[in-house]
TrEMBL record:
It holds the Pfam family HTH_18. SUPFAM superfamilies: Homeodomain-like (SSF46689), Probable bacterial effector-binding domain (SSF55136). Signal peptide: none annotated. GO terms for molecular function: DNA-binding transcription factor activity; sequence-specific DNA binding. Keywords: DNA-binding, Transcription, Transcription regulation. SMART domains: AraC_E_bind, HTH_ARAC. It comes from Pseudoalteromonas luteoviolacea. The lineage of its organism: Bacteria, Pseudomonadati, Pseudomonadota, Gammaproteobacteria, Alteromonadales. InterPro entries: AraC_E-bd, GyrI-like, Homeodomain-like_sf, HTH_AraC, Reg_factor_effector_dom_sf, SmbC-like, Tscrpt_reg_AraC-type_HTH. The keyword Metal-binding does not apply. This is AraC family transcriptional regulator. Residues 7-106 form the HTH araC/xylS-type domain.
Amino acid sequence: MMHQKFIKVLDYIEANLDGELDINQLCHVAHLSKYHFHRQCSTYFGMPVASLVRLLRLKRAGYQLAFRNEMKVVDIALNAGFESHEAFSRAFKKYFSLTPTNFRNKPDWTQWHIKYDDIIAVRRRCQTTSLMPNIDIVSFEETLIATIEHRGDPRLVGNSIRRFIDWRRENNLPPSSSKTFNLIYSDPNLVCDDEYQLDIGCAINLPVQDNAHGVVTKRIPAGECAVLRHVGSDDTLGASVNFLYETWLADSSYQLRDFPIFLERVRFFPEVAEREMVTDIYLPITK
């Protein structure tokens, strides 16, 4: 029962991250007296509610700084609930040891992940598995894709994403007109950092020409796939992937095809809130 209270609190915070988060309303959501709310939330989340809100807002700000160059720093600061550029800069540097401008120019993803590990723990603690995911079987058509191959530390994927975004912009291939894919070759929880492999890609009509970004042409082959739609943050994506492999596949009459599991990014952060992200997980299968 208490677990459900805090799931509702986290959902409410994420749904209202742009506005004022009134303590009385949070107490109402949790059905807790304000005399006990802070202590119980801090115990469950592992941090005060104010720190949780600040980290969630700063994560979005960090993504906007790193991946949305068209956004002004002052606008990012206001979106994060700060009254001024200066206040935002002080808070950002306190958490991530870089000013917003320095982070935009050269993100330090290692420091970022050290701070953000606490949020991952909160999300996983609040994750619910009470509903059985719906799995569809689809016939996937062969798709030509342009990809950047990320090899190495999964905490540095952000650097590869930046390079790929730059290439997409240069080639006028925004997500609105070119589907976004990830090919997942390894589980970061099961391999050493230097063995991690991930491709970041998008659909294209013609092979990629030689370029300075390291983007190459690949194909997702045609064939049957089991598809699970994951709604929410990537922090809990692993549980959905594991469900496909460990539960659904074991209970099905299908076998795996010789191609890695892949993702289609339908709606992604920071364009939408993390709780509103939509990722279709494709597991290549055969009878």
